[in-house]
C-alpha cells in the first residue's frame, strides 16, 4: 500500500444506537470483504449524548446478526467538532441530524456533511427513518436502506480516493 492517508467515514444519527451503528457495521462488513480496512477508517456517533458508552439497540444487533454482520463491539458516543475536522465523509441519517451537524461545523468542513441516502438513489426516501419507537420491520427497513447506501458510498470512495 502506498502512503496515502486512509479515507475516514463517520455515520451520524441522533442517539448512535440504531441507525448510525447499523450503517457502521454494514459498511465495515463491505470494506472488510474487499480487504480495504487499512484504506478506509469507519466510526459512528450521535448528535445527542444520552446513550454515551452504551451498545447498539438490541433490535439492531438482532437484525444485523440475522444477516451475518457483527456489531456487538460498537458503543455510542457523541459527535464533536474534532470529528467534523478529521473525517472526510460525515453522513447524517436524516435532515435534523444534517442541520445539527451543519450548525456545529466550521464553514470549511460543511461540504463533508451529506445525507447518507444520497448514496442510494434507487430509494425514494431521503432520510433513514428512526426505528426506535417502531416494530421490528423498521429495523429491517433501516438495514436495507443502509446496505444500499453503503454499497453506493463504497463505490464512490473507490472511484474518487483509492
Summed up:
Helix content is 40%, strand content 13%. With 162 residues, it is α/β, with parallel strands linked by helices.
Tell me what you see in this structure.
- This protein is an alpha/beta fold and 162 residues long.
- The protein is 40% helix and 13% strand.
- A 4-stranded parallel beta sheet has the order 2-1-3-4.
- It is globular.
Number of helices: 5
Largest sheet: 4 strands, parallel
Order of strands in the sheet with most strands: 2-1-3-4
**What's the overall geometry?**
globular
Radius of gyration: 15 Å
Q: Estimate what percentage of residues fall within beta strands.
A: 5-15%
Low-confidence stretches: none
Helix-strand topology string: EHEHHEHEH
What oligomeric state best describes the polypeptide chains here? single chain
Distance between the termini: 10 Å
Sheet/helix structural class? alpha/beta
* Mean pLDDT score: 96
Number of strands: 4
The percentage helix is 40-55%
Set down the secondary structure blueprint:
Elements: E1 7-13, H1 19-33, E2 40-46, H2 58-66, H3 81-86, E3 89-92, H4 95-104, E4 113-115, H5 136-160
Parallel strand pairs: 1-2, 1-3, 3-4
Helix pairs in contact: 1-5, 2-5
Summary keywords:
single chain; 162 residues; alpha/beta; four-stranded parallel sheet; 5 helices; 40% helix
Amino acid at each position: 500500500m502506498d502512503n496515502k492517508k486512509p479515507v475516514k467515514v463517520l455515520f451520524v444519527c441522533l442517539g448512535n444506537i440504531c441507525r448510525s451503528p447499523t450503517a457502521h457495521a454494514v459498511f465495515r462488513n463491505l470494506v472488510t470483504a474487499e480487504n480495504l480496512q487499512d484504506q478506509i477508517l469507519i466510526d459512528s456517533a450521535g448528535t445527542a449524548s444520552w446513550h454515551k458508552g452504551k451498545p447498539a439497540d438490541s433490535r439492531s444487533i438482532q437484525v444485523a446478526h440475522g444477516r451475518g454482520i457483527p456489531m456487538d463491539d460498537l458503543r455510542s458516543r457523541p459527535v464533536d467538532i474534532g470529528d467534523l475536522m478529521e473525517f472526510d465523509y460525515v453522513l447524517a441519517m436524516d435532515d435534523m441530524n444534517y442541520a445539527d451537524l451543519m450548525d456545529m461545523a466550521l464553514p470549511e468542513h460543511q461540504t463533508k456533511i451529506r445525507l447518507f441516502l444520497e448514496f442510494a438513489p434507487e430509494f425514494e426516501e431521503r432520510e433513514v427513518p428512526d426505528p426506535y419507537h417502531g416494530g421490528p420491520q423498521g429495523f429491517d427497513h433501516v438495514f436495507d436502506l443502509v446496505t444500499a447506501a453503503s454499497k453506493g458510498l463504497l463505490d464512490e470512495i473507490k472511484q474518487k480516493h483509492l
